Amino acid sequence: MAMFNRVIIAGNLCRDVEVKELSGDKTVADITVAVNEGYGERQTVSYIDVTLWNNDAKFAANYLSKGANVLVEGRIKQERWEQEGKTRSKIKVIANKLVGLGKSGAPVDVTPAAAAPDMDQVPF
After folding, report:
1. Domain of 68?
2. Which distant-in-sequence residues (6+ apart) come within 8 Å of 47 by Cβ?
3. How far does Cα 70 stand from its chain's mean position?
4. Is 114 part of any domain?
5. How confident is the model over 76-124, as pLDDT tens digits?
6. Residue 108 carries which DSSP code?
7. How far is 52 from 47, CA to CA, in rounded Å?
8. How many domains does the chain fold into?
């Protein structure tokens, strides 16, 4: 049976991003994304822990802050540890891609895509 582990979430950062520099020129940041579901009185919020690495971690630290609207694509990982004789676990997302969507209520700056080249002008 084939396995598939991919998740895409969109929500708001719950706190400012704190980056840690690790040995070997690696950078890591742990964030929490609040994801709303439903509406009105039936609205619920899930708080999803996300780990960002290297360029995504640096981007988040430089350009995002608490309340920023983000989209995260990644994979789910379950962490397990022993605490006071009991096995504990938590599920988090390891990000492959992070996109800042702008602060809640602020317009998103959309840069138009470059026009496709005129195929008559391509030299091959």
Report:
1. 7-103
2. 14, 32, 33, 34, 35
3. 6
4. no
5. 999 999 999 999 999 999 999 999 986 544 434 434 444 455 555 555 5
6. P
7. 16
8. 1
